[in-house]
Q: What sequence folds into this?
């Protein structure tokens, strides 16, 4: 089909075979920003109707990369190579070519370059919601709250407040602010976003983080529960909001409630092998155990999923959570295999490989030592990297599990002075934490 240039309602130009493709792509972007379940289906409609549209092909590669696993990455590599061959034959515009280059860089493991390309696209095309949301994702998995925050601060003044997706921007900005510890401002932006659209799960989530970090656990339970009928309409991200709810209950010592939410929600779709589900589950079970709760045979199902990811070399944050399941679930062979894979990964010239070497391996070894009762070795492994923990990505609330594991080992070790120091550190931030006290 002959390709022409068509613009969507925001004036963003697409090379496509019909104006419909450009408009549908805008729908896809909105759906992706809202974690809507139909996101994949919308893209499939576009690729079925307009298989040569460069941005549709690129988005297919992006979605594959977003799964953060070796088999999906292998698929993304093929899509990216095809796109690079194909793009020369189309009259793809500069923005589309840059997106193709971002996908290429992502497939090559150069996450820094990937994010830089998206940010460069946004300088010229601030209305490119896909570049904007993807940059938010990779800033998040680089553990860089300031970049998350500033990426949105640059864009917000350039968007009309009447834009249908403006609330998503407010929510992303809120999340960046929260990760920078600017809780009041974060709360203002997050609440404004949720007021616009209570189904905007990421914005609901920004406030959930504010309430977690400011230790407003009762309010957190009310906040998440009050909006449940809205945010629970989104994709598996909804289970992460149940995870947040569990954290509030955990701090309040309401372990039965945590177990119930774990069984009914957090772990309910573990078979679908979505990375965030495993992250939620591993970190919640390990936390429960550190609170002295017997989690029974719950690790087993996580081990089965984690074993599918022994070769993953995408995001260190995910790898560490798979490893948690293998270690805690007692599959030493698989855990050793995963750590060996991490050692190989750390020698590669890739963004996340460097983080794996700099911080990931230390956490991995600390977790293994801690689980096998070598508490002093666990502290010795983890303590030197505790100020670099943010590099593994994810949120401060998520990374807190690694801090807790280190503290738990310090408590069990015979080094009372180190333990006292580390617990005092955590109390400095979380004054009311029942677990720390
Ligand atoms: Fe979260």
A:
């Amino acid at each position: 089909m002959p390709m022409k240039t068509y613009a969507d309602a925001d004036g963003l130009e697409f090379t496509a075979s019909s104006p419909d493709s450009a408009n549908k792509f805008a729908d896809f972007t909105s759906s992706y920003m809202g974690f809507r379940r139909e996101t994949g289906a919308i893209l499939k409609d576009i690729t079925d109707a307009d298989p040569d549209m460069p941005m549709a092909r690129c988005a297919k590669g992006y979605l594959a990369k977003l799964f953060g696993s070796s088999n999906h990455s292998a698929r993304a590599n093929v899509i990216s190579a095809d796109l690079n061959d194909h793009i020369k034959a189309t009259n793809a515009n500069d923005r589309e070519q840059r997106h193709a280059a971002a996908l290429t860089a992502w497939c090559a493991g150069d996450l820094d370059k990937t994010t830089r390309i998206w940010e460069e696209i946004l300088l010229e095309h601030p209305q490119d919601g896909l570049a904007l949301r993807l940059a938010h994702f990779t800033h998040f998995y680089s553990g860089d709250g300031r970049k998350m925050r500033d990426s949105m601060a640059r864009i917000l003044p350039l968007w009309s407040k009447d834009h249908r997706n403006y609330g998503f921007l407010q929510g992303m900005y809120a999340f960046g602010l929260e990760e920078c510890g600017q809780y009041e401002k974060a709360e203002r932006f997050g609440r404004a976003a949720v007021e616009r659209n209570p189904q905007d799960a990421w914005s609901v989530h920004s406030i959930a983080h504010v309430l977690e970090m400011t230790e407003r656990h009762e309010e957190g339970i009310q906040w998440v529960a009050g909006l449940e009928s809205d945010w629970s309409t989104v994709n598996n991200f909804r289970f992460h909001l149940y995870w947040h709810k569990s954290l509030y209950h955990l701090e309040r010592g309401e372990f039965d409630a945590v177990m119930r939410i774990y069984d009914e929600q957090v772990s309910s779709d573990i078979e679908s092998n979505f990375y965030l589900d495993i992250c939620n589950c591993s970190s919640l079970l390990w936390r429960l155990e550190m609170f002295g709760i017997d989690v029974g045979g719950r690790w087993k199902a996580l081990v089965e999923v984690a074993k599918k990811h022994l070769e993953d070399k995408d995001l260190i944050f995910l790898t560490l959570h798979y490893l948690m399941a293998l270690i805690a679930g007692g599959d030493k062979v698989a855990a050793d295999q995963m750590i060996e894979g991490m050692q190989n990964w750390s020698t590669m010239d890739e963004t996340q490989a460097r983080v794996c070497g700099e911080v990931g391996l230390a956490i991995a070894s600390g977790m293994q030592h801690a689980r096998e009762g070598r508490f002093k070795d666990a502290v010795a492994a983890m303590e030197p990297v505790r100020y670099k923990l943010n590099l593994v990505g994810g949120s401060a609330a998520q990374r807190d599990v690694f801090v807790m594991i280190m503290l738990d080992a310090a408590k069990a070790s015979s080094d009372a002075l180190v333990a006292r120091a580390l617990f005092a550190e955590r109390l400095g931030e979380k004054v009311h934490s029942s677990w720390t006290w």
Summary: The first strand starts at residue 4 and ends at 7.
